[in-house]
Specification:
Length: 250
């Protein structure tokens, strides 16, 4: 629905002993969109994500989710609302199989985390759903592979599957294609587009090819402040953005 804002920050600010890492950021994320947060190193992107997920308390400003002020909530409360950050639940267990990793994510979502003595019937139900999620990220053929043996790009796909196991309404993806070769970048980009159906994604991303290909809106941060905002076609032509960020990428 046009104008339906799922996440909004108002004057969000974070200072560290006089250093302003995030400065009066007003961000509005449209429901059902893929929204990218970009900017040069030190722009405040990770700090902003840490504020959203309550790893850090803000110095000033507020965070609103589905029109509810969640600024002072604890991280677990925010996660229960459906805001899931990829790395929060993607610390994969290297010596478990791919399927077992997703199943643990499903156990957490069902509220009986790590109850490994559950009946076989319950675990079979989780297996079915785990395989559906693995199929969504094209990993079903590697379900019994030990996670430590996965190539890097496939591990990131597993992390997304584990994130999906938590049934997020808003997915926060922190540099999902970092450290990948071209083939893996293309695969993960397509995967993000695929799993965005029916949910909202806010992502920190450095790869402009990914951002231009799938994002509906882009917010550019510089020195903790919003430098520009809008669709890629508009933002990429902004002289300030070109000077601050785009020029560094080429």
């Amino acid at each position: 629905m046009a104008g339906d804002i799922i996440l909004e920050t108002r004057g969000l600010t974070k200072e560290f002993r006089g250093f302003v890492a995030v400065n009066q950021v007003n961000l509005r994320v449209q429901r059902g969109s893929i929204h990218a947060l970009i900017g040069p190193n030190g722009a405040g992107k990770t700090t902003f994500f840490n504020l959203l997920t309550k790893f850090l308390p803000p110095t000033a400003g507020s965070i609103h989710y589905n029109n509810i002020d969640i600024t002072r909530e604890k991280p677990a409360q925010t996660a229960r609302r459906g805001i899931i950050r990829s790395f929060q639940i993607s610390a994969v267990f290297p010596h478990l199989s791919v399927r077992e990793n997703v199943r643990i994510g499903l156990q957490r979502a069902m509220g009986h985390s790590f109850h490994f003595w559950r009946t076989e019937r319950v675990l079979d139900q989780l297996n079915d759903r785990a395989m559906e999620l693995l199929a969504a990220v094209d990993l079903q053929h590697m379900a019994e592979t030990v996670t430590a043996e996965l190539p890097y790009g496939r591990k990131r796909a597993l992390e997304i599957a584990t994130t999906l196991a938590m049934d997020p309404e808003l997915m926060l993806l922190d540099e999902p294609t970092a450290g990948m070769g071209h083939e893996d970048v293309d695969r993960v980009r397509d995967l993000i587009k695929k799993v965005s159906v029916g949910r909202t994604i806010l992502m920190v991303e450095h790869n402009m090819g990914v951002v231009s290909g799938i994002c509906d809106a882009i917010t550019v941060l510089q020195r903790g402040s919003v430098l520009a905002e809008g669709p890629y076609a508009q933002v990429s032509k902004n002289p300030d953005v070109i000077e601050a960020y785009m020029g560094q990428a080429h």
